[in-house]
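pinned: reference chain
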Amino acid sequence: MLTLQGSRDGRGGGIGRRNFLKIGGLSLGGLSLPQVLQAEAQAGAAAQQKSVIMIFLVGGASHIDMFDMKPDAPSEVRGQYKPIDTNVPGIQICDRLPKLAQVMDKLVLLRSLVGGTDHFAHVCLSGYPGPTGKNGSVDWPSFGSMVSKVQGPAKVGVPPFVSLTPQMTYPPWGLAGPPGFLGPAHAPFQPRRRGGDDVLLQDMTLDGMSLDRLSDRKALLSSFDRFRRSVDTSGVMEGMDTYTRNAFDVITSRKLVEALDLEREDPRVRARYGYGSSENVASGACRCMDHFLLARRLVEAGVRVVSLAFGHWDWHSDQYEYLKGDIPPFDQGFSALIEDLYERGLDQDVSVVAWGEMGRTPQINARAGRDHWPQVSTALLSGGGMTTGQVIGATDRLGEGAVDRPVHYQNVFSTFYHKMGINPHTTKVPYERFGQFERLHLLDERDPVPELL
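pinned: its structure tokens
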């Protein structure tokens, strides 16, 4: 990560020149900060920022039990839950999702999602299964890394790609959004949580202060002020060009810190999202509704792509007992995010998707659980100026496969590229292989979903 340490030189004269040069050379979106600032100055005002929030339902949520219910199927298929009407006539979902049922007019229910993979988060981050590189590495860049490469930061001082995905004991789920062959310059910025509900920017310190207590504004702002004064009195600013001086201002700005500071949020809004827990569930992620709120605050601050992981949906036994802990917090947090985006007028500029890497077996097994089913699954989409209040696609009477309008993960990502102003048919990124450079398309399936445009 990043260390901004107000190190004293041997004479006690403030920050040293070497440390300052490290700050000026910090990369955002593949460019050093001075380069970013210079490019922005040359390009003029940027267009309206578009963003995407990607929510990974870890392990693959059961499509039949939640969004594609089969009430007329045999009991070993339809399960224990009942369908309820939503606020869109003719669309029904699980009775354990009452809050989402009331915002269905702001959602798209994609019931024919294909191209899933057996327990690998990367398909929900890029549209490609993994691993794809040598020795189990992930070679194909995630969507956020591609956007970082093609568009760079939307605002100076704010990274284009942020991942809130926690570390997990099962590594293929814990992928934050690997940059693949684009390299670490396009990896996501990762705030980490370490116990409790305090946000910690891992390995990020400022003048000797770790940012693990963002609620302590007085101490944090004093740290910024000390850091600025140490540089102002050191003389290293003399002779630096305009863009390098501006880069210093970016590093000591408060945009990202303030976006991650949930204490700044209206308490009524926080209560609406709920809080949940920062403790991981089994080998999956946490059920932390704060992450939904953080995602909204981050896109407002200028982040182009935010990814997060929620819960643990891989229940091979006693699933209805375990789903009592998964479904209610997801219902509350995700519905609050959708309502919040619309109320703030962000529904035209921020696209949202919630999905897992696969569905679950139509047949409930002997242990009262459902097993892996990559053949078909469901996605929930919203925002981005999409036509909402609709269902796309259908599965057969047992939910075994798509029989109408199969849509690949990559078609959804193509739609997101389109919403971001990136043409996946014409845009390519550089790739080095065997010492030779070539340019590759962002996707294999490059057609967006027409119903979403």
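why pinned: The two ends are 37 Å apart (CA to CA). The chain has one domain: 49-201+255-452.
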